Amino acid sequence: MTMQSNPALYVRSRTRRYELAKPEQVLQAAQLIVDARMQRGMSFSNPTASCDFFRDKLGSREREVFAAAMLDTRHRLIEYVELFFGTVDGAEVHPREVAKQALRLNAAAVIVAHNHPSGEIEPSAADRAVTARLKQTLALVDVRLLDHVIVGGHQSLSMAARGWV
Description:
Elements: E1 10-12, E2 18-20, H1 23-37, H2 47-58, E3 65-71, E4 77-85, H3 95-104, E5 109-115, H4 125-140, E6 144-152, E7 155-158
Parallel strand pairs: 5-6
Antiparallel strand pairs: 1-2, 3-4, 3-5, 6-7
Helix pairs in contact: 3-4
């Protein structure tokens, strides 16, 4: 008897029998686990927590997604929202929409993030400019921008850790 070298994962079918899982079923299950770990009340106490959170959410995306974690006064998660969707090399960001969502959710602070499908995590000039505009816009409605995280595959970068927020 030979042992199988590739591990197999099984799912229960509609007929209540176990069948070999398809790759998309494995990814769906993994996303459910990630989502369950990142629920309301999760604390964003440092840039590492932010980087980990957004890397799990955005690291595998094939096009650019701009998202935000809306936080309470103790920097605990109120809600994660994906705000803007773009192409493989850019997404248009509207600061007034970020402010609108923050006000709708009564957020005291916001951490924004977006992914670079290329895998490059260095912020572009446009990334730094939109961060400055977001900080200015949110300050007008008494909401603090705590960080802007850039995700590239399995890597992430905190602009706050670099002193750019």
